[in-house]
Design a protein that fits this description.
Blueprint lengths: L9 H5 L5 H9 L2 E5 L2 H12 L5 E5 L8 H5 L3 E5 L9 H7 L4 E7 L9 H11 L2 E5 L7 E2 L2 E2 L6 E5 L10 E5 L2 H6 L14 H15 L4 H11 L11 H7 L6 H9 L2 H19 L5 E3 L12 E6 L2 H10 L6 E2 L5 H4 L5 H9 E5 L6 H12 L1
Parallel strand pairs: 2-3, 2-4, 4-5, 5-8
Antiparallel strand pairs: 1-9, 6-7, 8-9, 10-11, 11-13, 12-13
Helix pairs in contact: 8-9, 12-16
The structure holds pyridoxal-5'-phosphate (PLP).
The site of pyridoxal-5'-phosphate has 13 residues, from helix 3.
InterPro entries: DegT/StrS_aminotransferase, PyrdxlP-dep_Trfase, PyrdxlP-dep_Trfase_major
Keywords: Pyridoxal phosphate
Protein name: dTDP-4-amino-4,6-dideoxygalactose transaminase
Length: 372
């Protein structure tokens, strides 16, 4: 069985590993701060630049709750259309940007630099507004000598999307001026002790390890313990945003300090390549990215599926846990024909797990099972 997320082993907390994650940040980021979620990091980042205008542009191909911090700050979220290759539709972006735009958000999808990232940077320079480099998907991805998330004035990244942790994100302040003017909210920082969320997450991780082979049981444990934390599925985007309002968990910080970026990146890359091999002969599935440039730490292996529901059923049958279409779009995007490409992408893009606790041979075995 291939699990959806990496699980936390107790030995992972005690083994001595170099604190490379922190060194990586110290090397590439001007200033950073810890948060419980990417959305609340985005909120504090945007508050720092909110005197620059009244609206914020963000790509239409985006999970619905990501616009919530903008609304909470009393700013207007404006979605710009994106192309089939996940780049900005430049004409549409230019139609929506104006002298009252505080910031434009770009998104490095699935751990890869967004196509057209330089174009977004040059448009924000032209209009004198801020550029937010949303790198929620992959804190360890490098584009040459650049850590993703550090291209704009402000960046965010979500730790919980790549590490086995209950919550966690970082805000990057990429200029000295912004670092000086930034005023953190009470959600910045690390909780000073283990709390109920950490304990629940640990119990869940232990239960997952014990019952790893039993998919049904695993499902029910997941339901049982998902009463809080980032995994909780609540009714509205606002509730999901509110749910992420917290400091970084103490457990997350311990795992973060102990993590080995090079080995996580290497494992995820091997698993990405394994999915490439396994799916290359299928005519109903096309990878979103044909190549895996050096330095990229993929969040998932995304594919465009001709028949997404059938593919998900097949994957479930052969033991792949957590494959799903991505993302759930904002209602205003869903209902506007201007965003047809984003809507189609969200219906047909299926993401497959590549996390560091999967062995590539398990993916090869899934390939064999799928072809039977
Ligand atoms: C592109 C993007 N930005 C921001 C976020 C928000 O991150 P978090 O869930 O850590 O609040 C997400 C979450 O899925 C995301 O996909």
């Amino acid at each position: 069985m291939i699990s959806a997320t990496p699980s936390l082993s107790l030995w992972a907390l005690s083994s001595a590993r170099p604190a490379d994650f922190e060194s990586l940040l110290e090397q590439y980021v001007t200033a950073y701060a810890f948060y419980g979620s990417g959305k609340v990091a985005l909120r504090d980042g945007l508050e720092t630049v909110s005197n620059a205008g009244q609206n914020v542009l963000l790509p239409a191909y985006l999970p619905d709750a990501v616009a919530e911090p903008i609304v909470e700050l009393g700013l207007e979220p404006r979605f710009y259309a994106i192309t089939e290759t996940l780049g900005p539709d430049v004409d549409d972006l230019r139609d929506r940007i104006d002298s009252d735009t505080a910031a434009v958000v770009s998104v490095n999808y699935f751990g890869f630099p967004q196509s057209g990232l330089e174009t977004i940077s040059s448009i924000t320079s032209e209009y004198g507004c801020y550029h937010v480099d949303d790198n929620a998907h992959s804190p360890l991805s490098m584009d040459g000598d650049t850590l993703l998330g550090t291209v704009g004035d402000i960046g965010i990244t979500s730790l919980w999307k790549q590490l086995p942790v209950p919550n966690g994100a970082l805000l990057y302040l990429n200029t000295d001026t912004l670092a000086e003017s930034y005023t953190p909210s009470r959600y910045e920082g690390v909780r000073d002790r283990f709390d109920a969320t950490d304990c629940r997450f640990l119990l869940k991780s232990i239960a997952f390890e014990l019952f790893d082979r039993n998919a049904r049981l695993r499902e029910s444990i997941d339901t049982l313990v998902s009463g809080s934390g980032v995994g909780r599925v609540t009714a509205s985007p606002r509730e999901r945003y509110e749910n992420g309002k917290s400091q970084l968990s103490n457990l997350t910080h311990r795992v973060f300090v102990d993590a080995d970026p090079d080995s996580i990146r290497a494992s995820r890359r091997s698993n990405f390549s394994a999915w490439q091999r396994v799916l290359e002969t299928r005519s109903d599935v096309a990878p979103v990215f044909d190549t895996l440039p050096d330095g990229i730490c993929p969040q998932v292996f995304p594919v465009r599926a001709g028949a997404p529901t059938r593919l998900l059923r097949q994957l479930d049958r052969v033991g792949v846990d957590g494959a799903h279409t991505w993302p759930r779009l904002s209602a205003s995007v869903e209902n506007d024909p201007t965003y047809e490409t984003s809507r189609k992408l969200s219906e047909t893009t299926v993401v497959l797990p590549v996390h560091q606790h999967i062995d590539p041979t398990a993916i090869e075995a899934v390939g064999d099972a799928l072809s039977r």
